[in-house]
Amino acid sequence: MSGTGKAVILARGLGTRMRADAGGAALDPGQARVAQTGVKAMIPTMGRPFLDYLLGSLADAGFRHVCLVIGPEHGQIRSYYESGANLSRLSVEFAEQARPLGTADAVLAAESFAGGDTFVVINSDNYYGAAVLSELNRLEEPAMIGFARSGLIELGNYAAERVTRFGALDIGPDGFLRRILASPTEAMARSGEEIYGSMNCWLFDRTIFHACREIAPSPRGELELPRAVQLAIDSHRLRMKVVKVRASVLDMSSRSDIAGVEARLRDVTVSL
After folding, report:
1. Which residue has the higher pLDDT, 147 or 159?
2. CA distance 205 to 119
3. CA-CA to 144 of 20 to 30 Å: which in 93, 118, 124, 127?
4. 44 and 31 in contact (C-beta within 8 Å)?
5. What is the per-residue pLDDT for 205?
6. φ, ψ for residue 95 (rounded to 5)?
7. Strand, coil or helix: 219
């Protein structure tokens, strides 16, 4: 493998959807208690935190150094991975994002961890398989995973209407990202060809930090990572290779996701 084996996991989110009561979502008392805090990464899944499965997948893909971006109030994450988890294949450290200003600001919090190396950035509430993560760990230049919409629907836990939230990737003939679109163009839709979207699975170099510092807040008032990527492409000569895959991603965004994700991870062996 060619990569540096460094991964940054964004675990600072507010968990608004997870805290909201989803009528009919059957949770055990432990799951309900953690769900109420909004800390999706720590939802008990087959007796262990959901984040353990993601970390195990990273370890299987050859990653050895992980930085968890957390908030000052996330003591349960810090205490578990400092003393409760049995870590033998991974080293885990923490970067604190003081305020939840957005994913670009969260990446900035991990700048010291990254140093001058390339590093992967992924969400804490998504489970990406080791085969997908290995695609990034073998590369030395910036890249992202482009997930086929059909794969997310057929192999993951996404309904068709949910997948539309992830936009569409405008990929040049050379295989590099040109733009992340809010929705497919009419030409894309008419072509009948596969549409690829972003699930926040990135390989960055230090260029991204410059863009994260320069972007303005989005209409939602957040410093968003996809906007920083676009700025880096437009103004900092970032070339972002798109690795196209047809693979599942499991999403742990809301209480209604928990039972389905747990069932799909039932036979996954975790070694950290």
Report:
1. 147
2. 7
3. 93
4. yes
5. 97
6. -125, 135
7. coil
Distance between CA atoms of residues 128 and 116, nearest Å: 25
Per-residue b or e along 195-227, where b marks 16 or more CB atoms closer than 10 Å to that residue's CB? bbbbbbbbbbbebbbebbeebeeeeeebbbbbb
DSSP type of residue 97: -
The rounded distance, in Å, linking the Cα atoms of 245 and 129 is 11
Residue 109 in 3-state DSSP? helix
CA 41 – CA 195 distance, rounded (Å): 29
Most confident of 37-46, 58-67, 73-82: 58-67
Res. 255 pLDDT band, cuts 50 70 90: confident
Neighbour-count burial of 240, counting CB atoms closer than 10 A to its CB (0-12 exposed, 13-18 middle, 19+ buried): buried
Average pLDDT score over residue span 24-34:
68
| CA 7 – CA 66 distance, rounded (Å) | 5
Instruction: Say if pTM beats, i.e. exceeds, 0.85.
Output: yes
For the record, the structure tokens of 225 come out as 């990572």
* Cα–Cα distance, 223 to 200 (Å, whole number): 15
Q: Where are the domains of the chain?
A: 6-264
* CA separation for the pair 148, 214 (Å, rounded): 31
Distances (CA, A) of 111 to 130, 212, 225: 24, 11, 14
Query: Pairing between strand 91-96 and 177-181?
Result: unpaired
CATH topology (fold) of 6-264: Spore Coat Polysaccharide Biosynthesis Protein SpsA; Chain A (3.90.550)
Q: How far is residue 182's CA from residue 128's CA, in Å, rounded to a whole number?
A: 23
Please list, in sequence order, all residues whose beta carbon lies within 8 angstroms of the beta carbon of residue 52, skipping any fewer than 6 positions away.
45, 85, 270, 272
